[in-house]
Known about the structure:
The complex is a heterodimer. By secondary structure, chain A is mostly beta strands. Chain A has 1 helix and 6 strands; from the N terminus they run βαβββββ. Chain A has one domain: CATH 2.40.50.140. Chain A has a 5-stranded mixed β-barrel. Chain B folds into 2 domains: about 55-370 and about 465-495, Alkaline Phosphatase, subunit A; about 370-460, no CATH class. Helix content of chain B is about 30%, strand content about 15%.
Amino acid sequence: MDRRVFLTGLVCFAGVAPAEAGDETIRLRNFYNKDQSFSDYAVSMQGTRVAVSGFMAPPLKADSQFFVLTSRPMAVCPFCETSADWPDDILAVYTKRVFDVAPFNVPIVTHGTLELGTYKDPETGFVSRVRIVNAIYDRS
Amino acid sequence: MKRSLIAATALVAFSTASFAQDVAQKDSKWFTDALAKIQEMSIRQPITAKAKNVILFTADGNGVGTNYATRLFVGQQKGGLGEEYVLPYEQFPNLALVKTYNTNAQTPDSAPTASAMNTGVKSKFSTINVSENAVASDCSTLAGNELTTFAELMEKAGKSVGVISTARITHATPAAVYVNTVDRDWEDNTGIPEDCAQKDIADQLAEAMKSGRVDVAMGGGRRHFFPTDVTDEEGKGGKRTDGRNLIEELKGSGAQYAWDEESFKALTTGNNAPIIGLFESSHMKYEHDRTGEPSIAEMTEAAIKAMAGNENGYYLVVEAGRVDHANHDGNLHRTLTDGAAFAEAVALADQLTNDEDTLIIVTADHEHAIAFNGYCGRGSPITGLCYEIDDAGEKHLDTLNMADDGKPYTVAGFLNGPGAVLVKGEDEKFTAPEGRQTVTQEEATDPDYIQQAMIPLSSETHSGEDVAVYAKGPWAHLFDGTVEQNYIFHVMNHAVNAQ
């Protein structure tokens, strides 16, 4: 039944040739069916550049290249509180550069290459099902 | 009773007088509907038999304002304008307003509010079923301050006891059925100080089920019942560091265990085996997101059917725990979809029981900092933007009301929370250089939309505003006027002991 799998995932920065970013900004929920399986849309977009709207959960540390994108504002960071009640539809974002932290409740749009499949980050132990890599973000 | 008969006589007289009057509006549906209500009220008789069963429904955080929003939401989902809709429990004959403060808090917390309903006295913020002399989180103040719970009284009276929540079953409201604790957060052994003899909340539930004081418990919170080195059915780790697996202990003592929709459907009733259902590692899903686990209505039905075989009756507490959580998130859509699911559970329980022997109480533990704007035309979407009133018609115009900043605004908002229009800048100051965010109707009615708020807080707060209590069945008429929250216990206790 569950699904609330936590994200992360290092992943191959090298060798991923970003396709052209689409015009459409999508929601995290577009990646999932009701039963938490990947949607046809997610499968079809795997390996391509996507733009996803959401909110930046507070990162663990400054000068990071990783954050969690949530569909609704989450005031706690994923590593700081092990019992945090994370929703199912969160997205691991690996950024191209060290990024400026956005307040947890400011809407942003992230652009990056979509990766699907369970991955455990060897550094943090965080497990993700969906990631975008080589990412940048804008305030929406 | 005498007073209500006198009142009824007066109402009949008034009703008759109204019929006799030749008023211009006598054919209006508003007029005739109200006359029909007078007729209904004037012949209403209280039920004064002893209550065999008591069902206490609590939608956490569902104060009068939040409940108003749920009413409109469900009405609009059903195709109406919304304002005219009546929720199932709003049809109950008896109603009172409830003062929810704690002994040391103007703004209440769910722990002592649930405690008040289960013990008959108010207590301090963050504590459950201990007297107001106990100090929150101070283990040394537990001894001697433990209170007797309604569930204990019911067990002694030979009744079955059940507790259901869409939050963790170890969370404040459900815990008040079976626990005595100076700290609501001691859900497993990890939070308890080393020199403290108090048992954690999950342990107290397991003990209550093994001893026969609790017969049915269903909700979330599986992680508090097994050790950190064990992985559950969904791949999640436990929280306990004392090595105990309470789920295995309960199964070993003869309990039935369910963890998902399939195992929930496989539960059997009528064999007097206790039932423990733990459907999530933490809280169960919001109704909007629910998959693979039972609804609050389905759990309610299962609990009633499991306990209905007890000829002495039962006490069942059902909590819609996540109405509160979505309000804390400022996400009104999920507040209202969980509120709608709660209403369905109440309606189903009403269908499955008999008014003559079952007291059903529907209430909330506290309200939230929710507020409503005006002046919106009829049918303005309750989660969306406020439309102008049509001076010539009934339904709203298609033009939006605009604030002085030239932007539209939602019908509902919050005084504080994550939707605050002031956001933290790089200089750590909270500002809104471009003013409020402009929102479209499509954006505002999106299920993930966060209503705008005034004061920036990461989690929206409760408020001390009154909640309502609706009731039907034996002695439900004891609910009237404005009451203290601990009075709810006394109505239940009177109803089950009436001679």
